[in-house]
Model the fold of this input.
Amino acid sequence: MEQRKVIEVKQNILAANDAAADQFRAGRRQEGTFFVDVMASPGAGKTTLLLALIAQLRALGVEDLGVIEADLESDVDALKIKEAGVASVELNTRGVCHVEMGMVERAFAAFGGMHFDYLFLENIGNLVCPAEFDTGAHTRVMLLSVPEGWDKVMKYPPMFAAVDALIVTKCDYLPLNEDFDMERLKQEARRLNPSLEIFITSARTGEGMPELAAWFQKTRAEKLGL
Done:
């Protein structure tokens, strides 16, 4: 029986993507740009969290900020970022469920040589495919909103295993969701990823945002050797 080579093809595609990611990551490090991949399911609050985080970073004196907004279609989120006075490029994947390095490189080129202290990629709303593709980021984080439920950690383990930090969003909804088991979430997430940082946040109330911004500042200094 003829052997299928689907796994080999996938490995070759990922190998080429990883090589490009390593090159991109090194280039941004030389420029002093800390590149962050932000992943979550649709509606978890990625754009709202980014706006709140940007406000915190600005309060700490950070001004050079940029965002790549990845969506299947539209520029709704990119316009929200621009309205906040932050440079943004819309990356429409036209139905592709994840972001690859070729897309990141084209989006970055669209900034026209601007310098950033922080550059964020708001990845496609998806808890599956984005975990598999290295986007050249120095750190990867994921958001999980309280309305989604704690048990997503049981259903999408590769995503939780792939990131450096889990940011629980919309924690102001906790009183309305008695079934949300925060301790079980932490336990299962750290079983998959023992070094995982976990932040409990609400962009609406500001809870957890100063701690999150401080972690980003610390991680940027470590990753870029500052």
Observations:
- The chain has one domain: 6-224.
- Helices lie at 6-31, 46-59, 76-83, 101-109, 152-155, 157-162, 182-192, 209-224.
